[in-house]
From TrEMBL:
Location of the Alcohol dehydrogenase-like C-terminal domain: 206-336
Transmembrane parts of this sequence: none
GO MF assignments: alcohol dehydrogenase (NAD+) activity; metal ion binding
Catalysis: reaction(s): a primary alcohol + NAD(+) = an aldehyde + NADH + H(+); a secondary alcohol + NAD(+) = a ketone + NADH + H(+)
Family statement: Belongs to the zinc-containing alcohol dehydrogenase family.
Annotated Alcohol dehydrogenase-like N-terminal domain residues: 36-164
Keyword Transmembrane: no
InterPro entries noted in UniProt: ADH-like_C (IPR013149), ADH-like_N (IPR013154), ADH_Zn_CS (IPR002328), GroES-like_sf (IPR011032), NAD(P)-bd_dom_sf (IPR036291)
Cofactors that this protein relies on: Zn(2+)
EC number: 1.1.1.1
Name the record gives this protein: alcohol dehydrogenase
Compartment list: Cytoplasm
One Pfam entry name: ADH_zinc_N
Length: 380
């Protein structure tokens, strides 16, 4: 691999030329990594709803042409100046948020919201020089959340790359670089349910099912899935969900339904929808005195969370989380080990698989609401 170090690499990438239009497989030029950057050979990537959201460009600044993709696994091809932790051949997960290890957030044991490398959806260039590392015929193609994994090669800031066990199967652990870790960590790191406790999970998509998986790993005895789509209930049983509530089946607010089911409320709840009403329900359905609700979903920019202050005064706790409170470089290797030790099951999240040339099929599956994660194999 080192033979390409320092050189421009020509490779295939799926380029989003404009909002909502199918991605086009193009030959792109990928520049060598600059200071504190790493060039990666992407072997597997998967499609997350965030990619679709920015591809549709609804409600945010459209940045095109762009190479999307942020859930992936690969191998280090070459490293830029100042990179000491990684070397060519290392197996890695690129992550949409980073860990510089030097800012106040990175030095805090409580935070993973790095000042330097926190997600920035509007920035389409590298931090080092404000330029893109991708181009076609000299025209820049923009980056996406610092990762751009829908390309056979990509350039990423070293702080957004987690070095993992080289024995871990890259076609499985690639999904840990975003959604699955977010849901899992929301439960294990933030909600922290105890053995035998009750947990309600709002939204049974991939992130919500990862939150349920966290509750299963923690030993929760009652895991209540809340979703408007009853078709999701059967799938959710594989992730430890053992009771289901569809808010549409009741005339009263779902938080009252859950409080009645559980004699006062659940011990923990995790909200994974981004719907502000679901967030309010998730908070109001936890038990007074000790209940903890964790918000994971990203709400509409104009949404307002309203609840009566007595719900807080009665000793309910409301928390938020970003990427499951995992520090990417420090913590992700241990999440991979959970899979290697068979504590965490990843196979059940991967419901579809396509070749890189068929990447638009992955978008079709997600737009139709089919499956959880679609794996995209970069090598044809």
């Amino acid at each position: 691999m080192a033979s390409t170090a320092g050189q421009v690499i020509r490779c295939k990438a799926a380029v989003a030329w404009e909002a909502g239009k199918p991605l086009v497989i193009e030959e792109v030029e990928v520049a060598p990594p600059q200071k504190m950057e790493v060039r990666l050979k992407i072997l597997f990537t998967s499609l997350c709803h965030t990619d679709v959201y920015f591809w549709e460009a609804k409600g945010q600044n459209p940045v095109f042409p762009r190479i999307l993709g942020h859930e992936a696994s690969g191998i280090v091809e070459s490293v830029g100046e100042g990179v000491t932790e990684l070397q060519p051949g290392d197996h890695v997960l690129p992550v949409f948020t980073g860990e510089c290890k030097e800012c106040a957030h990175c030095k805090s044991e409580e935070s993973n919201m790095c000042n330097l490398l926190r997600i920035n959806t509007d920035r389409g260039v590298m931090l080092n020089d404000g330029k893109s590392r991708f181009s076609i015929n000299g025209k820049p193609i923009y980056h996406f959340v610092g990762t751009s994994t829908f390309s056979e090669y990509t350039v990423v800031h070293v702080g957004c790359v987690a070095k993992i066990n080289p024995l871990a199967p890259l076609d499985k652990v690639c999904i840990l670089s975003c959604g699955i870790s977010t849901g899992l960590g929301a439960t294990l790191n933030v909600a922290k349910p105890t053995k035998g406790s009750s947990v309600a999970v709002f939204g049974l998509g991939a992130v919500g099912l990862a939150a349920a998986e966290g509750a299963r790993i923690a030993g929760a005895s009652r895991i209540i899935g809340v979703d408007l789509n009853p078709a999701r209930f059967e799938e959710a049983k594989k992730f430890g969900v053992n009771e289901f509530v569809n808010p549409k089946d009741y005339t009263k607010p779902v938080q009252e339904v859950i409080a009645e089911m559980t004699e006062g409320g659940v011990d923990r709840s995790v909200e994974c929808t981004g719907n502000v009403n679901a967030m309010i329900s998730a908070f109001e359905c936890v038990h007074d005195g000790w209940g903890v609700a964790v918000l994971v979903g990203v709400p509409h920019k104009d949404a307002v969370f309203q609840t009566h202050p007595i719900n807080v005064l009665n000793e309910r706790t409301l928390k938020g989380t970003f990427f499951g409170n995992y520090k990417p470089r420090t913590d992700l290797p241990s999440v991979v080990e959970k899979y290697m030790n068979k504590e965490l099951e990843l196979e059940k999240f991967i419901t579809h698989e396509v070749s890189f040339s068929e990447i638009n099929k992955a978008f079709e599956y997600m737009l139709r609401g089919e499956g959880l994660r679609c794996l995209i194999r970069m090598l044809e």
